[in-house]
Amino acid sequence: MSARTEKPVVTRFAPSPTGYLHIGGGRTALFNWLFARGHGGTFLLRIEDTDRERSTPEATAAILRGLQWLGLDWDGEVVSQFARKDRHAEVAHEMLARGAAYKCFATTEEIETFREAARAEGRSTLFQSPWREADPATHPDAPFVIRMKAPRTGETVIEDRVQGTVRFANDTLDDMVVLRSDGTPTYMLAVVVDDHDMGVTHVIRGDDHLNNAARQTMVYQAMGWEIPVWAHIPLIHGPDGKKLSKRHGALGVEEYQAMGYPAAGMRNYLTRLGWAHGDAEFFTSEQAMEWFGLEGIGRSPARLDFKKLESVCGQHIAVMEDDALMHEIVAYLAAAQKPALSPLQDTRLKSALYCLKDRAKTFPELLEKARFALESRPIVPDDAATKSLDAVSRGILRELTPMLQTASWSKQELEAALTAFASEKGMGFGKLAGPLRAALAGRTVTPSVYDMMLVIGRDETIARLEDAAVG
């Protein structure tokens, strides 16, 4: 292991606050978080808000909410890139003093005229400023930008931990602007200065930034700074293999919360999306931290698969502690703008989780199965359940009710009592279960009759049976 990788690991997530937290951004943040946490390192959050026209406080808040829902905690304060603009400008002038950059007085019109001529003549449109080697004594008293002096021969090599060795011919890279004529820094400069000053050791980001790495490497070299470990991860595609878009469904992390996916399941699925640890599909966050490494990231785009997402989420719901599950359900209802649970509903739902959570893949599915515990009398049966409540069935329920008044209220005793009652009537328990489900839940597909009776209690059970018996 090199001395560089022995340094304490520092990663960062640096979104632009121009909209919601995209699911691809959520996965990038997750990979950075896992790598830092797994190495006992630091995970930083920087908001790249230099685009003042498009950056909004609302978008920043949405990004923070998305990260918090995913359970990705960051270290220290959130850094605003815009707030560091003076530091960026300072570095641009230091590059100038080092001879690694120069003042360029070429106007926008002159650059466009050059490019039009180059296109017409079939030449490269890469602008080569006439001011690169100009004597400062010849500089006019006019607005200027500061351009970096990029090498014009040879190649810039990126040793990427995911993509491998990537080479860029230097004659295809121009002298990029690092400071605009109004004194504001460009994104390319700001990113490098921030990463250096924040001590970032590993830059883990989407492979749409791979070309940027070549230019940013030149800034590191110009300043004599240590270059971080690069790891450019493939993007997420839709199930059809095409770039993820609205036609594939939800794109924002918060949308997945509002659809009722548990955060732990989402973390598990996103971790597995483009990264592998053997054949492991289901794992905890602690296991993911222990196992996660850059070498497990594939080079091909990952495909979003909602069936796999639901399967993983169902497994997480099944093993969640009841208190944690209730906390997430309450948060889901708020995110989905659905009515909050009443104190009685809260109590009943929590007591019902034992017979619900291994049967649901999402919170809406779990709550649908919990309708028997959440609804108040009178229970209105749906069409299928109504068919189970004919005159004969209602008569049977009337006979059953007095027996339940004195029955011992445990699953074992209730099972024995109801089985014996069905036997006395010359019917299998299945014939009795249909009317009971209809009376207790208003549905034909429910948790077991005994579980429902235990959750809602003796008094509520008898009251619902009496309601149904009346018809």
UniProtKB/TrEMBL annotation:
Subcellular location as annotated: Cytoplasm
GO biological process: glutamyl-tRNA aminoacylation
Ranges spanned by the short sequence motif 'KMSKS' region, renumbered to the chain: 243-247
Motif mapping: 'HIGH' region: 15-25
Source organism: Cereibacter ovatus
GO molecular function (one): glutamate-tRNA ligase activity
InterPro entries on file: aa-tRNA-synth_I_cd-bd (IPR045462), aa-tRNA-synth_I_codon-bd_sub2 (IPR020751), aa-tRNA-synth_I_CS (IPR001412), aa_tRNA-synth_I_cd-bd_sf (IPR008925), Glu-tRNA-ligase_bac/mito (IPR004527), Glu/Gln-tRNA-synth (IPR000924), Glu/Gln-tRNA-synth_Ib_cat-dom (IPR020058), GluQ/Sye (IPR049940)
EC annotation from Swiss-Prot or TrEMBL: 6.1.1.17
Higher taxonomy: Bacteria, Pseudomonadati, Pseudomonadota, Alphaproteobacteria, Rhodobacterales
Protein name: Glutamate--tRNA ligase
Family of the protein in this entry: Belongs to the class-I aminoacyl-tRNA synthetase family. Glutamate--tRNA ligase type 1 subfamily.
The Glutamyl/glutaminyl-tRNA synthetase class Ib catalytic domain, residue ranges: 9-310
First-listed, main subcellular location of the protein, grouped into a coarse class: cytoplasm
Residues annotated as domain Aminoacyl-tRNA synthetase class I anticodon-binding: 334-468
